[in-house]
Design brief:
Length: about 350
Amino acid sequence: MLNKQDISDRILVQEHFAKEHLPLDMTADQVADYKARIKQLLKEKDACLVAHYYTEGILQELADETGGCVSDSLEMARFGANHEASTLIVAGVRFMGETAKILSPEKRILMPTLEATCSLDIGCPIDEFSAFCDAHPDHEVVVYANTSAAVKARADWVVTSSIALQVAEHLAEQGKKIIWAPDKHLGSYVQQQTGVEMLMWDGACIVHEEFKAKGILDLKQVYPDAAVLVHPESPASVVEIADAVGSTTQIIKAAQTLPNKRFIVATDRAIFYKMQQAAPGKEFLEAPTGGNSATCRSCAHCPWMAMNGLENVLNALENGTDEIFVSDQLIDQARRPLQRMLDFSASLNN
Ligand code: 13P
Ligand code: SF4
């Protein structure tokens, strides 16, 4: 059961990520100095900052203040492809930078660090995945955006969590059987919601896999009025107790539209920065992970997203380091399933 200390820790976490959003290891003057230099360089280098909701608040603030974008992975791809800047600084994880390069090969794509990867991408190596697909040639291959360029190149469709259900429904209507990779939790959710016949890859997100239904139910006893918001990379037992399930953008919208004043949020806590802006006056609590005695590998914050910061954004802009390169052949092959997703998404909005 949660004790008072757990609860006040949660409130402090929420306040830091939602309001102060300053790096803990910098003074306000240092932050202001970094921000000014980055803003100047973005102009000089014809660059635009595209940041994911899981990056620290200060980067989200910078992207907003400089005409860049803060969003989920689908909108990052769309925004970057449509923006006229010749350089994109992609603050997020590597697959997001690669997606930007595949959709805009003429642009220079820089990342704060190329070391920022994703457990889903690591867990789906191209050789094994390709052999799996070859063994089931009668299946349509659907891969999550959180994969390498090579895995995307092997796919018929790329999806992100904001469009996964619609794509699966579309394929189910056509009587297609699908291979789903790499996230087994998102895959189970999609299968359960759409009834599509699915062969599943055994991958998981180390952040979302840590959320525990028991901990969330304990917290709900303390805050019975709180609604539970869950990203579908979480285990089925957590998805089952959710009041809203969806991509990062979809759960921010749920925080705005649900009448509740308080929310327990099962996704990366850096999202609190945007949630608080979208739903001012509401309170957000981090969903419990492994419990007090467990060894938490992520503790509701993606270790790779956390590698993005003011210093390495500045370094990338000053020195052109950490550039994304993808071969022409892979760009050609991976672009088709990615563009298919974007075209499908556009058709839904028309
Ligand atoms: P979104 O597509 O919802 O932005 O999620 C990306 C991701 O990596 C979630 O862990
Ligand atoms: Fe990958 Fe999970 Fe990090 Fe998202 S939160 S980038 S899925 S490891």
